[in-house]
Amino acid sequence: MKEHLASYPYEKPSLDYMQTHIEFATEAQQSNACTLHEAWAKVPAALNATEIQQYQEEIRELLKQHNAVMVAHYYVEPELQDLALATGGMVGDSLEMAKFCKNHPADTLLVVGVRFMGETAKILSPQKTVLMPDLEATCSLDLGCPADEFKQFCDAHPDRTVVVYANTSAEVKAHADWVVTSSIAIEIVEYLHSQGKKIIWGPDRHLGQYIQNKTGADMLLWQGSCIVHNEFKGIELTHLKQQHPEAIVLVHPESPAEVVAQADVVGSTSKLLNAAVQRPEHEFIVATDQGIVHEMQKQAPHKTFIAAPTAGNGATCKSCAFCPWMAMNGLAACAEVLRNQSQQVQLDAALIEEARAPIQRMLDFSEAYKNYHQQQQLGAGLAQFQQWLATQHEAKYSAL
Ligand code: 13P
Ligand code: SF4
């Protein structure tokens, strides 16, 4: 353990502790991941229309040649999202990406997002080749939650069930009982709470707090945060809402509580997209990475999307809500890694085994939850679902 962390008592990490920790991690610890500044420096220059077309044609051919499929997150550049969809791949939230990667028959997955997404794909399909445009594209939540520190935190509370957000390394997942994404976190924690479990939650403190408020579960929170969502400002959002009184506010739950409190819809990227498309209103304030506006605008071309503010009145940037690690992905790198079969996600077989169980648990739960709702019609109560789950999966979950 690093010297300046050695005295940490492992009760509840303080914000100050975590801020020092994240800075330390981003500056020195993770040599195989880009720091924030390095990530911005690696963002590829914009391409002109001819270059975009040339790369898209080349990638289309390379995907066929390698029996590969492209799987992208909503936060990456529009031309990457469009190509993934046009070539039979997908664009989705992190849970949908994991399911698609696991179920698709391709030999090679080109995962266009950040490293935890590529690692999850490899863990669920170790036999497939998993390529990423840049393996150093990481996430501030992953950087702020080193596996050795998190393990000590968990070891100090052996009575608690460990639930970790998907935005973590494979090593952190290997310490978890459950992995969750923002689209299924509340349902899983609600289920565990109903079973009388006390929880350790990591790493995003805002999402953890939101789930705790929603479920009433006893949760000990790791104090990580997303550098993009953490920047949304409550007071500025209040002012913006006053200027657009008809607008619906869409918020990702990695945002601070004062921003979440003003939301009409809180949820994963897919949930926010669906709300933007399905709701009858015409104006939406969007508090998540602005990459998602591309798909919102495509699916709801006559609606207006306004970026939620990230900075005070004096700042030049009113919304800088772009993830630098997502922005590292580009068409040129996609073509290069397919051509050379480089930037492959490699994980130790034992680690894959350990990290798979809590991810698979989430997938099983999510599937059971979906099936239940399909059978019972949407809106069925959680208590009924829990009863049903207990009969279906007694042996599987009762040990946790
Ligand atoms: P989603 O699972 O909602 O896509 O979120 C992933 C993420 O990294 C949000 O910042
Ligand atoms: Fe991580 Fe935030 Fe980027 Fe999502 S937006 S990948 S949580 S740093």
UniProtKB/TrEMBL annotation:
<comment type="pathway">
    <text>Cofactor biosynthesis; NAD(+) biosynthesis; quinolinate from iminoaspartate: step 1/1.</text>
</comment>
<protein>
    <recommendedName>
        <fullName>Quinolinate synthase</fullName>
        <ecNumber>2.5.1.72</ecNumber>
    </recommendedName>
</protein>
<keyword id="KW-0175">Coiled coil</keyword>
<dbReference type="GO" id="GO:0034628">
    <property type="term" value="P:'de novo' NAD+ biosynthetic process from L-aspartate"/>
</dbReference>
<feature type="coiled-coil region">
    <location>
        <begin position="45"/>
        <end position="72"/>
    </location>
</feature>
<dbReference type="Pfam" id="PF02445">
    <property type="entry name" value="NadA"/>
</dbReference>
<keyword id="KW-0662">Pyridine nucleotide biosynthesis</keyword>
<keyword id="KW-0479">Metal-binding</keyword>
<dbReference type="GO" id="GO:0051539">
    <property type="term" value="F:4 iron, 4 sulfur cluster binding"/>
</dbReference>
<keyword id="KW-0808">Transferase</keyword>
<dbReference type="InterPro" id="IPR036094">
    <property type="entry name" value="NadA_sf"/>
</dbReference>
<dbReference type="InterPro" id="IPR003473">
    <property type="entry name" value="NadA"/>
</dbReference>
<keyword id="KW-0408">Iron</keyword>
<dbReference type="GO" id="GO:0008987">
    <property type="term" value="F:quinolinate synthetase A activity"/>
</dbReference>
<comment type="function">
    <text>Catalyzes the condensation of iminoaspartate with dihydroxyacetone phosphate to form quinolinate.</text>
</comment>
<keyword id="KW-0004">4Fe-4S</keyword>
<dbReference type="GO" id="GO:0005829">
    <property type="term" value="C:cytosol"/>
</dbReference>
<dbReference type="GO" id="GO:0046872">
    <property type="term" value="F:metal ion binding"/>
</dbReference>
<keyword id="KW-0411">Iron-sulfur</keyword>
<keyword id="KW-0963">Cytoplasm</keyword>
